[in-house]
Design a protein that fits this description.
Elements lengths: L11 E5 L5 E5 H9 L16 H10 L2 H18 L36 H37 L1 H15 L3 H9 L8 H26 L3 H8 L4 H13 L1 H23 L11 H8 L8 H28 L5
Antiparallel strand pairs: 1-2
Length: 328
């Protein structure tokens, strides 16, 4: 007769443990373990292993820094596309009789030295900053990733040439380069500023992409694809790029806030965007002489610029933490 008594509990199941022994699991517990999305071995639904991107998205959804920064950025994108939804009137309409006046109905941020509505100009200024930041970041990321990725994959002569070219660009001070190159531009559009940022910004991304591709192409799955006769284009697009793009995304996200700040700096110095364009840098420059009599005209565009840059930097930090397996 067995010493084990039936107590009505489900039949036990023997499961291996990490110490080489065994433990008893109830049938319901074992079934729950098998159905868990994460699973004991980090598998996803239907037993499929979770990818880096799915793990990153799961971590981002639980990160309050990402949620707050993403909400701020979504709001900025919204007012960039539809500024008239929260600001009535034209940012170019000014009334000198109201110059330097404080907050009042219809102008919660007051008026600047030219009698322009500071609230309206601050809202419309977001469009310029977001446009410059996004376009410059896309241009830098695409150009830098292509040049750096190809140099890192093929190496040799082209890698040496690219390294020397990037050294030359790194030696050029960004603000000084902007003063020299943009001082001869007479266009009032954002494209000369975006082109300047792409011209001096791609070397940083190219070095990140180069190092990431060099690391990725040494992995076993790339060597196996090469041994099976995969072409260079297939290895780059299917095997290397998906596993080397994460550092580029992180750096580009953080750099987006930097480009917004750079545009404001160049506009403040008078070589970036010029009136009648609406820009936070232009408004900060115009409000500087009246800082004692009308500090509100300087406070609001400066605060909007600071919040925007901080939001993109926080977003980049959150993405970096989520995509870096060493931080898990």
């Amino acid at each position: 007769m067995s010493d084990h008594q039936d107590t009505g509990a489900p039949e036990g199941i023997i499961a291996p443990t990490g110490m080489g022994g065994a433990m008893d699991l109830a049938a319901s517990e074992a079934e729950t373990l098998e159905k868990t999305p994460g699973g004991p071995l980090g598998t996803g639904p239907a037993g499929k292993p979770r990818s880096l991107w799915s793990d990153a998205w799961r971590d981002l959804r639980r990160n309050p820094v990402f949620i707050v920064s993403a909400l701020v950025i979504l709001f900025l994108v919204f007012i960039s596309l539809w500024p008239s939804a929260i600001a009535s009137g034209s940012p170019l309409k000014c009334n000198l009789s109201k110059a330097q006046q404080g907050s009042q109905p219809g102008a919660p941020f007051g008026y600047d030295g030219q009698g322009c509505n500071v609230y309206t100009r601050t809202v419309y200024g977001a469009r310029t900053s977001v446009t410059v930041g996004v376009c410059a970041t896309l241009g830098v990321a695409i150009l830098g990733s292509i040049l750096g990725g190809l140099a890192g994959y093929f190496g040799g002569f082209w890698d040496s040439i690219l390294s020397r070219i990037t050294d030359v660009f790194f030696a050029i001070p960004v603000v000084l380069g902007g003063l020299v190159l943009l001082s001869v531009v007479t266009s009032n559009t954002v494209w000369p500023v975006i082109g300047f940022m792409v011209l001096l910004g791609w070397p940083q991304i190219s070095r990140i992409a180069r190092g990431s591709v060099i690391t990725a192409k040494q992995n076993d799955y790339v060597q196996a694809a090469r041994a099976l006769g995969a072409s260079n284009s297939r290895m780059l697009l299917r095997h290397i790029t998906p596993n080397a793009v994460a550092p580029v995304i992180v750096v580009a996200t953080i750099a987006l806030g930097t480009y917004i700040s750079l545009e404001a700096t160049l506009s403040y110095l008078g070589v970036g965007l010029k009136p009648p364009s609406v820009s936070w840098g232009i408004d900060i420059s115009a409000a500087s002489p009246y800082i004692r009599n009308a500090p509100h005209a300087l406070l609001w565009p400066s605060g909007a610029l600071a919040v925007t840059v901080l939001a993109f930097i926080m977003l980049g930090d959150a993405v970096r933490d989520a995509l870096d397996p060493k931080l898990r």
